[in-house]
Specification:
Strand content: over 45%
Largest sheet: 22 strands, mixed
Helix content: under 10%
Structural class: mainly beta
Radius of gyration: 32 Å
């Protein structure tokens, strides 16, 4: 009676509007009315319901919809004890009224203690798609990564990168809690697959819960739901593999978990020398990057080393060329002392030994110079990485929260290279260290239902000293009084400190428009130093033009505004303007020049428009003008050793590089379709671009950064799934 009264009120209220009406009676084979028959109007047998009704005591139903029926639709009648009936409904204009009667045929059956159970493989709940894992797995899955490969629409690359369609996931959570952010590969490569009962795909995901429904998000995330047997109790697994017929190959892992309502614990370890990468890209764990998203202040801060020993790899599976001896231990916890307070801790230690070899031949022909170099190259790396994270999140109220995140990482690496260069034995040693401390504090406040304010502060300090030695002097023709057997040594370091503060305002209008405004200031100070020596039988030579010591400071005050406007449901435009006032300061202690300082102001505008032709076709056109400030590795003035036979140097001056770009993309289908395609083409013009002027000899190369004018690049990509 309540349902009937509610439907009657709805009918009375909406009768004043133009609507399409479908009415009729449902009868049995004897012409008697069938009450409580469910009548559904759908586009087809699997589509969502457009309208519904339940027949009254007289068998009468009444369906009202507000849209025109252009293509054939299905009218479906269901009642207990009768066979389901479907009637095809053709074109109906708005305000049309059509009567359709139905006669249902009795369905005879008997039940004798029969229990019927069913599992729905896929459920859709607003922005969440839920996959029941047992509908897609076959029992051969060992870790979460293996399971996710079986879920339709989700792809897992060889390195562990997870994508939905052509977009990488933002994070992978367990029971709604995130341990590793962008370093999710550490989780998916180790978490056992057996206890995972459901996989939730979260669309239009927001990293900040207070921004849900406000920010314009196209991010996707995954949430792994565990079965009841894996909750509120300790559980885990242990696996051990050893190759009896192989050369001392082993692979072992252990997991111990407890996911109660208040506290969550996840401890795991992995030891192997079969080439299995148990961490993925570990830098994503240490430097989780969400550049361009609200609250991402400082996510783009990195340090670049001067010396990099070559370890480029062919397009083979890791197990075919990667020789390792990895030992991984991770201790991770989440505490909820109160409903408002959540504390996350991560402890991570990774030891590894990597071996790599390559044989190559290079032939150089240019401007009358002709020579061939041969290399038999092997590289062994021993390193240890320690990482700790403390994440405290406190909800001040339902509409306000504060978060404090502290990170510390330390990496110690020793690399040894045995090289036969043109039949001359060469030994390289590189001691590579990185220390990083990262502190971030963020305050979030939501106003009403469509406005939010984020205030973020961040401090980063990173140090990267290097010690590099070579027992062969390939520069004996460049430096007088030196011989090929002399030893080469360089001590170098690039250290920086970063301090930033930012306020970000978001205002979502009732019509879907979005206005964003950011204002902030960042200060980064870099210290670059290198000391280059050649040890001869009689002396230690320190060439003047091959030493560097400088301080480089960049102060950036910026105002950023963005507006998203919708002309219709399918056509939108996004305009962005980015204003920067930058002060560069350079104190080059390796030269006699006075400290330099400059202040510049520039604007980076961009414009993008998107058109959804229909549910299967989408076109996006975007353009931008950009100016980029140079980093410390582009401005040092003297040469620095970057390899056993290479020197390079920067421009010795401040540089800003101007460019423009125009991009066109086309999408056919959706990521969940059986067929999905994307096409992308970009035309970019660099009005100023950084390149190098090189002096090349058979024994060594001198490289000098220079700026040239006008570079045009056209790139295109087509992807089919």
């Amino acid at each position: 009676m309540k349902l009937f009264f509610f439907l009657s009120l709805c009918t009375l209220y909406t009768s004043v509007f133009s609507q399409t009406r479908i009415t009729g009676y449902v009868l049995n084979q004897k012409g008697l009315a069938i009450e409580n028959t469910v009548v559904l109007l759908k586009k087809d047998s699997v589509s969502s319901v457009l309208g519904y009704a339940i027949t009254n005591n007289d068998g009468e139903y009444n369906i009202l919809i507000k849209e025109e029926i252009k293509s054939p639709h299905l009218l479906e009648f269901s009642s207990l004890g009768f066979e389901k009936k479907r009637i095809i409904l053709n074109h109906l204009k708005i305000s049309d009224s059509k009567r359709i009667d139905a006669t249902l045929v009795s369905e005879s059956f008997s039940l004798d203690e029969v229990i019927l159970t069913t599992t729905i493989p896929i459920r859709i709940k607003k922005d969440t798609i839920v996959f029941t894992t047992k509908s897609f797995t076959d029992g051969t899955e060992t870790v979460a990564e293996d399971l996710l490969k079986k879920i339709p629409g989700i792809s897992v690359a060889e390195d562990g990168t997870i994508k939905v369609g052509n977009q990488e996931v933002e994070k992978v959570m367990i029971e709604g809690d995130d341990f590793f952010e962008r370093g999710y590969k550490t989780l998916t490569k180790n978490l056992p697959a057996a206890p995972i009962e459901k996989v939730e795909l979260l669309q239009r995901y927001s990293n900040n819960r207070l921004l849900k429904g406000i920010e314009k998000s196209d991010k996707v995330a995954l949430n792994l739901k565990l079965n009841d047997g894996a909750k509120r109790q300790w559980f885990g697994n242990f696996e051990l593999g050893y190759g009896l017929a192989s050369q001392n190959r082993y692979d072992s892992r252990a997991n111990l978990l407890n996911f109660s309502k208040k506290n969550k614990y996840y401890f795991f370890t992995n030891l192997n020398n079969v080439g299995y990468d148990a961490t993925g890209d570990i830098s994503n764990l240490i430097r989780s990057s969400r550049t361009g998203q609200p609250g991402s202040l400082g996510d783009n801060q990195r340090v670049s080393n001067l010396v990099k020993l070559s370890n480029s790899v062919p397009y083979f599976k890791d197990s075919r060329f990667k020789f390792n001896n990895a030992e991984l231990l991770s201790l991770n916890t989440i505490f909820n002392p109160t409903e408002q307070l959540k504390i996350k801790t991560i402890g991570f230690a990774n030891w590894d030994e990597l071996a790599y070899f390559r044989n190559s031949t290079d032939t150089f022909v240019a401007n009358g110079t002709n020579f061939t170099n041969s290399e038999n190259y092997s590289l062994k790396s021993d390193f240890i990485t320690l990482f700790a994270k403390l994440d405290i999140n406190y909800d001040l109220s339902k509409t306000a929260s504060i978060q404090a995140v502290s990170k510390y990482s330390n990496t110690e690496a020793h690399k040894r290279s045995d090289l036969l260069f043109n039949n001359t034995p060469t030994l390289q040693n590189l001691d590579d260290t990185n220390n990083r401390f990262d502190q971030k504090i963020a305050y979030s406040k939501k106003f009403e239902n469509n406005k939010a304010l984020l205030i973020t502060g961040r401090y980063i300090k990173e140090e990267a000293p290097q010690g590099f030695t070579v027992n062969q002097n390939n520069f004996f023709t460049l430096f007088e009084e030196t011989e090929p057997q002399d030893n080469i040594e360089q001590q170098s370091s690039i250290n920086y400190e970063y301090l930033g503060a930012e306020a970000h305002w978001l205002d979502r209008k009732e019509n879907g428009y979005l206005f964003e405004l950011k204002v902030g200031n960042t200060l980064r100070t870099d210290q670059l130093k290198n000391t280059f020596n050649i040890t001869t039988s009689n002396d230690i030579i320190t060439p003047v033009r091959f030493q560097n010591k400088l301080n480089y400071t960049v102060n950036d005050t910026y105002l950023w505004a963005k507006y998203f406007y919708k002309f219709s449901k399918k056509w939108s435009i996004t305009a962005t303007i980015n204003n920067h006032l930058i002060t560069n300061s350079l104190d080059n202690k390796s030269t006699e020049s006075k400290p330099k300082k400059e202040t510049i102001f520039f604007i980076n505008p961009s414009l993008a428009t998107s058109l959804e032709i229909n549910d299967k076709n989408k076109i996006t056109l975007s353009s931008a003008l950009t100016r980029r400030n140079s980093g410390v590795t582009n401005i040092y003035s003297n040469y620095a050793l970057t390899g056993y036979r290479n020197f390079s140097r920067g421009t010795g001056a401040f540089n800003q590089l101007d460019a423009s770009s125009l991009s066109l993309s086309y999408e056919l289908g959706n990521w969940s379709d059986r067929f999905f395609a994307t096409a992308f083409v970009t035309y970019a013009t660099s009005f100023d671009f950084l390149t190098s002027n090189r002096t090349i000899t058979q024994d060594f190369t001198l490289s000098e950064n220079i700026i040239l004018k006008d570079q045009d690049i056209i790139s295109a990509n087509v992807s089919l799934d």
